[in-house]
Amino acid sequence: MTSTPPPGAHRFPVGLVVAVLCLGSFSGALMQSLVIPIQAELHTLLDTTAGNASWAVTATLLAAAVTMPVTGRLADMYGKKVVLCASAAVLALGSLVAAITSELPLFLLGRALQGIAMGYIPVAISMVREVTPKEKQAGAVATVSATMGVGGAIGLPLAAWITQTFSWHGLFWVSTGLALVILALTATVVPHVRDAHPARIDVVGVIGLAIGLVSFLVGVSKGSEWGWTSGSTIGAIVGGIVVLLLWGAFELRHPDPIVDLRATASRPVLFTNLAAVAIGFGMMAQAIVVPQLLEMPALTGYGLGQSILAAGMWMAPGGLMMMVFAPVSSRLMNSIGARLTLSIGAVILSGGYIVALFLMNAPWQLMVASMIASAGVGIGYAAMPTLVMDNTEPAKASSAVGVNGLMRSVGTTIAGAVMAAILTSNTMMLAPGTPEIPTHDAFRICFLVGAGAALVGALIALLVPRQRATSGSATADNEGPALEVETVGAQA
């Protein structure tokens, strides 16, 4: 039995509800790229070192990674609307803190709160299943999922324009206003459904997950800066893994774990999450490499000499492609199933990198490659939460989607580290005494690695077992459109 009310019971049209959830998810994803245009000057703006200023990005990433599964679990326990409103309120608070300060500690607190607010995204994705008719669920999930990529892509040119037109504090005043709008719309438009499943909060589990993830991800994200063989890097990574292993043993014995590891270890969910790591890697690789190549000085012979704003504008169409291909993903899921749709999306993502290998001599060429890769991301990102929710009990759906979001974050973090290692280990000097810059071959290697990661994701997706065809959801891997799937949720 599910908690989905009849569509007519909603106070507002279902389309408007989905639009609000999309806006909230878009805003959460926007926080990731908000400070990129000012990152080079951030140490001066905050009167600190460049190393300390780099935590402005890392703090948001770490907070989001830890929060997604925790927020999902809280949504399952107390209701999705309550947690959505709380996430929007946290986003407003974090944005306000960052807007009114020029001190590093308070600024990092604001950025961490903005990362926590990204817990809105997995809860919004699972909420879609509660408020939309069954025949429209695939399309709605695809649309909300696509906003994650759109927020990151649109955020770069938007943030650059706000910074150049107003001031760097203007970035956070705008995000404060946007968060307040989202809070008001979520509280007013999104219906309250009876979806709470009361349980005890696993405080020890939350703390253990936070310590383990933060330690591991800090080690990975800072490895290039600290040195991969340094004691700090090795200690952080190994220490994080040890804590996560101990945390896992504790969670398996807990009656109400913050993450149900037995459910995530089921073959469909496990392989979907592993594919999420590979595809998250593939998505982030082009988001890191393409802007650098666009902004590289033209006198290198291969750099395209674009400004930050121009580079963001060349990247923006890729983000829009994710939204454009959301309906395509929906149709594919309804006809051939989420499993094959995920694999197809990963193959297209890989194809975007292959195109980039041969089209990297002009901004428009990289835009085309980015659009192809982004189309693959849009198709694949929509299929992942569908696969997870189709194989998870409704009482644990938000938590499961949150874990899937965490696995994508792990993939993007690893991608950042690998791309940085490649770009800093293949360098040259334009003239004696000038800073070393990545070579042309370094960018080619990055594209090849991104293509390989996406193909690995496509192969892993094929390991997700076919679901039995009965009268249930329309997301089975069908021989034809008449076959449907019996999900765990339907059994419940």
Descriptive account of the structure:
- Helix content is 74%, strand content 2%.
- The chain has 492 residues and is mostly helical.
- Residues 1-9 and 469-492 have low confidence and may be disordered.
- The chain has 3 domains: 1-200, Growth Hormone, Chain: A; 202-257; 264-492, MFS general substrate transporter like domains (Growth Hormone, Chain: A).
- The protein is globular and about 65 Å long.
- The chain contains 21 helices and 4 strands.
- The strands form 2 sheets. A two-stranded antiparallel ribbon has the order 1-2. It has a two-stranded antiparallel sheet with strand order 3-4.
- Strand 1 and strand 2 (437-438) form a beta hairpin.
Write the layout of secondary structure elements.
Layout: H1 14-33, H2 42-45, H3 50-53, H4 55-78, H5 80-100, H6 104-116, H7 120-131, H8 134-165, H9 168-189, H10 203-221, H11 223-226, H12 231-253, H13 261-264, H14 267-295, H15 308-324, H16 326-336, H17 338-358, H18 363-390, H19 397-425, E1 427-428, E2 437-438, H20 440-462, E3 469-470, E4 484-485, H21 488-491
Antiparallel strand pairs: 1-2, 3-4
Strand proportion, as a percent range, falls in under 5%
- Give the oligomer, counting copies of the same chain as homo and different chains as hetero: single chain
Describe the global form. globular
Based on secondary structure, the structural category is mainly alpha
Q: Please report the distance between the alpha carbons of the first and last residues.
A: 6 Å
Major β-sheet annotation: 2 strands, antiparallel
CATH class of the largest domain: Mainly Alpha
- Total strands: 4
CATH homologous superfamily descriptor of the largest domain = MFS general substrate transporter like domains
> What is the string of helix and strand elements?
HHHHHHHHHHHHHHHHHHHEEHEEH
Rg (CA only): 22 Å
Q: Summarize the amount of helix as a percent range.
A: over 70%
* Average of the residue pLDDT scores: 83
Strand adjacency order, main sheet: 1-2
Q: Could you say what the CATH architecture of the largest domain is?
A: Up-down Bundle
Number of helices: 21
Spans of at least 5 consecutive residues with low confidence: 1-9, 469-492
Briefly note the CATH topology name of the largest domain: Growth Hormone, Chain: A
How many structural domains are formed by the residues? 3
